[in-house]
Each structure stands twice: as C-alpha cells, then as structure tokens.
Amino acid sequence: MDLKRRIPFLRTSFLRMALGAFNITRTGQIGDGREAAAVEYVLANAGPGDVDDVLATIDRFAYQESFLINVGDEKGLLLDAAVRRADPKLVLELGAYCGYSALRIAREAPNARVVSVELSEANAANARQIWAHAGVGDRVSCVVGTVGDGGATLRALADDHGFAEGALDFVFLDHDKAAYLSDLAELTDRGWLHPGSIVVADNVLLPGAPKYRSFMRAEQGKHWDTVEHKTHAEYQTLLPDLVLESRFLG
Asked: Who's near 21: CB < 8 A, 6+ residues apart?
C-alpha cells in the first residue's frame, strides 16, 4: 500500500482538511470543493444502481483523490455489523456529509427507511445525488437542520417521517461531537427509542466525544449496554479511534 494512503497527513488533501477544520464545524464542509468533486467522481465512475460500486468508488476517491471525513471502509464494517444486529425498519442518521454512511446502512437494511439530518444544504444536495445514483433515493432521505435547532427538525421528523414513540430502531451519530450527548437525550426524552434500539457513535476518540463516552460508561448495565470498538480514524491505519455501539435497555 502507498505510504500516503497509510499516513494521510503526508497528503496535501489531508493538510487542506486540517486547515479547514473551522469550516467543517461551521458549514459541514472542508471548504475546498472536495465534496462536490467526490459526487462528480462517483457519477462518472460508479455504475448506476450499484450500491457496492458507489461505495467502493467513494472509498477510492478518498484514498486516491482527496481525503474525506465520512466513516470510511474500516469503521464502515463495524457500522454494517451493528445495522445487521438491529435489523431496523426506521433509522436516524445525524450527519449525512456526502451520503456514504447512509448508503452503507441502506445496503445492510434493505427494508428500512433511513432519514439523515444534515446541517449543510450543500451536503444534503450532494448526498441526495449519491443516493439517487446508487438507486436508494426512494428510501433514504435528508432533513436539513439540527436536533438542537429549537424543535423545527424534530417536528419535521415526527410530522413528515413518522418518528413516534418506540419507532426508532437504529441511530448513527456522526455529526458535531459536542452534540452527541444532548441530541441523544432529545431522542430518548421523546420516547422514540425502544428497548433493543442500537445507537452507534463514530469518532469517539478522534476528534473525540469524551462526555458521550463518560455517559455511556456511567450508564453501563442501567439504561445502556455499550461495546467500545477499537479501530482507526477514517482512511488510514495509524491514528486510533473508537466506535461505540450502545443497545438501549429502556
């Protein structure tokens, strides 16, 4: 494997990403156009209606063209396995980015409806193009907003997407790390989860969600049963990361 593939911070696209960290938290994008370029790359190189090929093409873009901040191929396998364990009918993703993780979820749960909440309208538009090209646009949708926006997004989920008491089987957290805990609290306070619902959280070690991790450790065996998966940050094998898989006990 190429050294720059193993160690991404040797790549100029990784350095540009690091310099654009402020843009990521403010706009959901790195700021150099790589997200739109990834969509163009997929449309030009991946077979329409072929979910596997679309995912592989996004991974290839992230390795060979520009580093992306989606869950990636290694951690994606952990996400896949958790989805299969949940066998969900209704899924909530927080943080669509380019649509990669929602596509993985849709592949592993062919009977599920997947709703992704995304801060950035541009990211939402990109993700919808990816999902349409992969042939899953009829069961994967995006709501632009945030859980903490004063209720507008939560009302949209309830009114337009059927979120109700006990209806939510699976949640994937991959958005603002500081919002993991408060956003999960909103979901549980509304009673949308049920015993057996699974919540997967990415990037718990890097860049880190320490309050979320501490909460899950304190709640172990009480309201949550959590497994910490040791893995690596996306698209490299040097920097460690954690993915937390938590089963709601009620």
From this structure: none
Share of the chain above pLDDT 70, in %: 88
| Active-site residue identified among 126, 176, 177, 183 | 177
pLDDT digits (tens, 9 = 90+) for 69-78: 999 999 999 9
Active site residue 108: no
Single-letter amino acid code for the residue at 240: P
177 is catalytic: yes
The domain that holds 173 is classified in CATH as: 3.40.50.150
- Whether 202 is catalytic: yes
Residue range 124-151, pLDDT digits in tens: 999 999 999 999 999 999 999 999 999 9
Domain of residue 204: give its range. 70-248
Assigned domain for 55 exists? no
207, part of any domain: yes
| CB neighbour list of residue 224: distance below 8 Å, 6 or more residues apart | 216, 246, 247, 248, 249
Choosing from 35, 73, 118, 174, the catalytic residue is 174
- Residue 162: count of CB within 10 angstroms of its CB: 12
